[in-house]
Design a protein that fits this description.
six-stranded parallel beta sheet, alpha/beta, Quinone Oxidoreductase, Chain A, domain 1, seven-stranded mixed beta sheet, Rossmann fold, about 350 residues
Length: about 350
């Protein structure tokens, strides 16, 4: 089968950073689906895993943690899917990735693609939808239906993949959403998705919030730079507020005052935790994907695909990684077809 892989960890402008290769088609295990991958999207985790380091792989390593496609075969214990089903998933970072014509994925991590949804749109959803949903409604103590009513939420990095879904889920739950963006086009994107206010994360946040009438906010999702905004978040959060984090800090964080004095809840989200540690509730990710995909298909949420490259090959994946590393992406970039 065709695949895009690496053996060395190189800068993305090196033509050997990602390579077109041929690999054997895998065989599903007991809980697996064998999926014919038809569309993938890229995320910061792809670029972080691929980033330069002296390590060399003895066998080609396939990255990719967002996919949509068609089930080709199922494992012996799989009952919720059959050959021919259209599916979407982010999968498991400890297994071979989705940048291949065929991939094995644990069926418990997989959602169904609604009949009306294009597979390229479906491929833009899994990692970001799971991350935003788990963070807002499972790590943080907010109900998905009305948990934001009467509350304010600041989303730092609103125009990225996770932010693009989080804005919509938060508005749906009743939050007054303030997003951050630094360019006119990213600010417009956040407003289109439902942010009531947009402020510039390259400028001090507290004065901008105050000018909007928010001396404090009830919750913050910091999706951009944990360390850079740490002191500011502690300042602007209300007592008994909550902060959600997805980016590992470059240095130790001071979690004493004001975080301790205000009893601020600190919540980490890593959507690969469930599959990596084989938790008892892995199938929760499949349920999240089913629910979000239906919301997008029905028009209740907006899809986040903003650009599509074709075909899926090393050259286009290098281009996609480079665009993501540039920090200029809005929403999700998808690759479709082999």
């Amino acid at each position: 089968m065709k695949a895009v892989a690496l053996t060395r960890y190189l800068p993305i402008d090196d033509p050997n950073a990602l390579l077109d290769v041929e690999l054997p088609q895998p065989v599903p295990g007991e809980h697996d689906l064998l999926v014919r991958v038809e569309a993938v999207s890229v995320n910061p985790v792809d670029t972080k895993v691929r980033s330069p380091k002296p390590q060399v792989e003895s066998q080609p390593r396939v990255l990719g943690y967002d996919a949509a496609g068609t089930v080709e075969a199922v494992g012996a214990s799989v009952t919720q899917f059959k050959a021919g089903d259209r599916v979407l998933y982010a999968g498991d970072i400890t297994r071979s990735g989705s940048n291949a014509e065929y991939q094995l994925v644990d069926a418990r991590l997989v959602g169904h693609v609604p009949p009306s949804m294009d597979l390229a749109d479906a491929a833009a959803l899994p990692l970001t939808a799971i991350t935003a949903w788990e963070l807002l409604f499972q790590r943080m103590p907010f109900d998905s239906e009305n948990g934001g009513v009467g509350r304010s939420l600041l989303i730092i990095g609103g125009a990225g993949g996770v932010g693009s879904i989080a804005i919509q889920l938060a508005r749906r739950a009743g939050f007054a959403v303030i997003a951050t963006a630094s360019r006119d086009e990213t600010a417009d994107w956040c407003r289109t998705l439902g942010a009531e206010h947009v402020i510039n994360h390259r400028q001090p946040l507290a004065p901008q919030l105050s000018a909007l009438g928010f001396e404090q906010v009830d919750a913050v999702l910091n999706l951009a730079d944990t360390e850079r905004y740490w002191d500011t978040v502690g300042e602007i959060l209300a007592p008994q507020g909550h902060v959600g984090l997805i980016v590992e800090p470059a240095a130790a964080l001071k979690i004493g005052d004001p975080y301790k004095a205000k009893c601020i809840g600190i919540h980490w989200e890593m959507m690969f935790a469930r599959p990596r540690y084989k938790t008892m509730d892995q199938n929760e990710q499949g349920r999240i994907l089913d629910r979000v995909a239906e919301m997008v298909a029905s028009g209740e949420l907006r899809g986040t695909r903003t650009e599509t490259l074709s075909p899926i090959n090393a050259a286009n994946l290098r281009r996609a990684h480079g665009q993501l590393e540039s920090g200029s992406s809005i929403g999700k970039l998808v690759l479709s077809g082999w």
